[in-house]
Design goal:
It is a single chain. The chain is mainly α. Among the domains are: 29-92 and 110-173, no CATH class; 294-367, no CATH class; 368-416, Winged helix-like DNA-binding domain superfamily/Winged helix DNA-binding domain (Arc Repressor Mutant, subunit A). 70% of the residues lie in helices and 2% in strands. The protein has 27 helices and three strands. Strands 1-3-2 form a three-stranded antiparallel beta sheet. A hairpin with a 4-residue loop joins strand 2 and strand 3. Helix 23 crosses helix 24 (385-398). It is globular. Residues 237-419 form the PCI domain. Keywords: Proteasome, TPR repeat. GO terms for molecular function: enzyme regulator activity. This is PCI domain-containing protein.
Length: 488
């Protein structure tokens, strides 16, 4: 929700306006923040340091909630060039009167990056006002301006504009029409080695394909493209989440589990991106159940996930798989089918029926050393003893249970369980943990940055040493050092 703050100039400010700690009006504080962000963008352009621009863009979420048409009009008149001023003003409401005494437009020395930043703020304002057609028009014009100017300092800003360009299409229900433009932008970003735009556009394309359930196209895109190494953690987490969903549909549950787990670990905190974490955990729980494992109880007790997983039906599905009860699984599936369809997990949960049967059969094999097939049919609620015999034979062949079937007398006999530490399973798990720790260490080392100031200091010290050495050589050649010793 964007708050519009109406100011009554006839009353005392102390009675009608909320003030900040410095005693400034909320509009003035927001305008001052925009001016500070513009100065940081100018500094990023001068020093060719894109990290400063990325830091400015991270404040869009909090700044977006306090934007108004009046604040944007003042910022545009104060910071934008004349061309952008006339271009952006029609998109905002002109009902409010601007205080011309406080606005002094700058005609010279305006950086085009600041114009793009102001255009991005106007796009956000139009999205919040549900003016999606105008927002799409402005986003398209902004992308054309970025292509025309073709500056590398635009890369972080262009990535944000591309993201909201697709988001507007998604809100309009026209995300499929944006794919062709996204593919062109992806090809251009790859040729220019623009890592920011590559990551954002690739994630938008994967989201578009997954929304249309075009999993083959998404898999081809993943196989023929490479995610840039320099992309930030939020984009990497989003890419791993989409990759995990594609692998889960393709029955590659182990890779899907690893990708979803990495996406959860790299995602922002729950206060910043709660929706992403909830969706990622929903797929993570389902994939872990499909692998034959039961998710930890602590996942369902987290404050952020407790409501979504319980009300969404994932806790009921997990309980049904854990006890191996087909009737409980069918009831949970019927009750929460609408939630599963909305979360795009329905087709994956339908595959869990076989896991429910396998889990129930494993529990029966551990509890009974010998049990008739008709009792297995009754416990698992199967249709016939022939189905029970087929399922037991298949589970024994796959190694789910260690048992044999007596076909003449019609019973299943379980073998005594061996020592798990004599198998390779503990070694595999230990190797996986070591590989994860080593990968985390290598990523941390790659992500380390050193300040440029230290390099400048080293250069200054080296230059000073060279000057001192050349001065000493000149003194030796002129004989000043020998004269000084004779005088002494």
């Amino acid at each position: 929700m964007v708050e519009n703050i109406m100011i009554d100039q006839t009353e005392k400010p102390t009675e009608t306006l909320e003030t900040s700690k410095e005693g400034t009006k909320p509009e003035q504080s927001v305008l001052a923040e925009i001016k500070q962000n513009a100065s940081l963008i100018e500094r990023a352009v001068i020093t060719t340091e894109t990290r400063i621009t990325s830091r400015v863009l991270r404040t869009l979420t909090t700044l977006r909630k306090r934007l108004t048409d009046q604040i944007l009009q003042e910022a545009i008149q104060l910071l934008a060039s004349q061309k952008i001023r006339t271009h952006l003003s029609p998109y905002l409401s002109n009902d409010m009167q601007l205080d011309s005494s406080s606005v002094e437009p700058s005609e010279t020395g305006v950086f085009p990056e600041v114009d793009i930043y102001l255009s991005l703020l106007v796009i956000l304002r139009l999205i919040d006002n549900s003016s999606l057609t105008s927002a799409l028009e402005l986003a398209s014009n902004t992308l054309n301006t970025i292509r025309a100017l073709n500056k590398r300092s635009f890369d972080p800003l262009a990535a944000k504009v591309w993201f909201y360009y697709y988001r507007i299409h998604e809100l309009l229900g026209q995300e499929q029409s944006a794919c062709s433009h996204l593919l062109v932008g992806q090809r251009t970003a790859v040729l220019r080695k623009d890592g920011d735009c590559q990551a954002v556009i690739l994630n938008c394309l994967l989201r578009c394909y997954l929304s249309a359930k075009a999993y083959d196209q998404a898999d081809k895109l993943i196989a023929k493209s490479t995610f840039p190494e320099g992309a930030g953690n939020p984009q990497l987490a989003r890419y791993l989440y989409y990759l995990g969903r594609v692998k889960a549909v393709q029955l590659n549950y182990s890779e899907a589990h690893d990708n979803l787990q990495q996406a959860i670990r790299r995602a922002p905190s729950g206060t910043i991106a709660p929706g992403f974490l909830q969706n990622a955990y929903k797929f993570f729980v389902v994939v872990e159940l499909l692998m034959g494992d039961i998710p930890e109880r602590s996942i369902f007790k987290q404050q952020l996930l407790k409501s979504s997983l319980e009300k969404g039906g994932y806790l009921a599905i997990t309980q049904a798989v854990r006890v191996g009860d087909l009737s409980l699984f069918a009831d949970a599936l019927e009750k929460h089918s609408e939630n599963f369809i909305r979360d795009n997990t329905y087709t994956l949960i339908l595959r869990l029926r076989h896991n429910v049967i396998r889990t129930g059969l494993r529990m029966i094999s551990l509890a009974y050393s010998r049990i008739p097939l008709r009792d297995i049919c009754a416990k698992l609620r199967l249709d016939s003893e022939e189905d029970a015999e087929y399922i037991v034979a298949k589970a024994a062949r796959e190694g789910v249970i260690d048992a044999t079937i007596n076909h003449q007398q019609g019973y299943m006999e379980s073998k005594q369980g061996g020592n798990i530490y004599n198998s390779e399973e503990p070694q595999v798990l230990f190797r996986q943990r070591i590989q994860f720790c080593m990968g985390l260490h290598n990523d941390s080392v790659k992500a380390m940055r050193y300040p440029l100031k230290a390099k400048d200091d080293d250069l200054a010290k080296a230059e000073e040493a060279r000057e001192r050495e050349s001065r000493l050589i000149r003194e030796i050649e002129d004989g000043d050092i020998g004269k000084g010793e004779e005088e002494d």
